[in-house]
Design brief:
Layout: H1 2-43, E1 45-52, E2 59-65, E3 74-80, E4 83-89, E5 101-107, E6 110-117, E7 120-128, E8 135-139
Antiparallel strand pairs: 1-2, 2-3, 3-4, 5-6, 6-7, 7-8
């Protein structure tokens, strides 16, 4: 009786083991592909511009977040120290490069950032380190 109980218990474990492995083999690649796709489309950052102030005390970094989906806009993040702001550049679905963002330093603590895309007017953002919110959009034109 004890041997029969062990055999049925081993058969039950074998069924569950096969079921778990089937689940892993079927859903594992799907979950892996979805995670890889999400990382590259939404999270991965690629540096476009890294600009230092004239006295090298402040740094502004402009990065592209993810990749544009088909003909959609591209997301960019502007960082200065631990402060950041997210913006969108409409560039006809093309990947961004250093010609889509400019940083012009006014003095050591303030700069003017210009974001340019093929399907939008330039967007100008002012950076002022001394303010509580260092980024301020001063010019944005919504339609082309």
């Amino acid at each position: 009786m004890d041997i029969e109980h062990d055999i049925t218990r081993m058969k039950k474990r074998a069924k569950w083991g096969c079921l778990i492995w089937a689940f892993i083999l079927f859903f594992g690649p799907i979950i892996s592909f979805a995670g890889y796709f999400y990382y590259h489309m939404e999270i991965k950052e690629r540096t476009l511009v890294l600009s230092h102030s004239p006295d090298n005390t402040n740094t502004i970094e402009i990065v592209e977040k993810g990749e544009p989906a088909f003909f959609g806009p591209s997301s960019v993040r502007i960082k200065a120290g631990n402060k950041k702001i997210d913006r969108i550049i409409s560039n006809d679905g093309k990947r961004l490069n250093e010609s889509n963002a400019f940083v012009e330093w006014i003095n050591d603590d303030s700069a003017r950032i210009t974001l340019v895309g093929e399907e939008q007017y330039p967007e100008i953002i002012e950076f002022n380190k001394g303010k509580r919110k260092p980024f301020k959009t001063v010019q944005v034109e919504l339609d082309y």
